[in-house]
Amino acid sequence: MSWLEVVVLGIVQGLTEFLPVSSSAHLRIVSAVGFGGDPGAAFTAVSQLGTEAAVIVYFAKDIWHLFLTWVRGFRDAEVRATDDYRLAWLVVIGSVPIAVLGVLFKDQIEGVARNLWLVATTLIVFGVLLGLAERFGKQVKPVERITVKDGILLGFAQAMALIPGVSRSGGTITAGLFLGLTRPAIVRYSFLLAIPSVFGAGLFTLPDVFAGDGPSGAQMLVAVVVAFVVGYAVIAWLLRFVQNNTVYVFVAYRIALGVALLAALSLGAVSAY
User: What is the pTM of this model?
Assistant: First the structure.
């Protein structure tokens, strides 16, 4: 990989990780169109360490509080009755599906799932689902009212993002809206839910990044740092945006990008692999 590709992909990762547009799809598309290749699922997973580090820094106070509450809850019955203790466990429970499915389907995720025909299709289909969720979701439940059943369903929704084009945040936001959660509630939970799964995936695939003709250690570090800086700015913007705006702009963008990609594939302008 060239240094230009590494920097560009780091910027793309930071810009798209938290938006419901699929960062893995954008990394795959930008690399194919701009650099004639595929950065690989391992590069995608490791570069996400930068954006998740941004989440930890941005929400450091909340995350530390939840962690301490979770630990204290093992020995204090009063703590176990709090919303924060339950939320901490919901993050743990919701992280299980993506961990299990990621290990079971590792070969498919690194192979057939990266076909650009599939990426284009998932961009459109899950874009439509996001629009329907925005239209019909009641949006009445705050984050404190997320149930164990909700946590499990949201965990499986996040796991769908193992397929490029679905989007980790897009899957959880879609499911959350259908479950009646407010946009700010599901976005906050989505940030928290991504931390263990992304760090787990990044560390799990780290050895694969440097196999073959992939990026060097220095290049990978630069990609992670760039993704961190850009991602930190996007977090602040997205939290303000969802307070007063619908997600229809992301729906339109996903569908337009998916249609454009299908057209490019049909014309032979870009290779599916």
Answer: 0.89
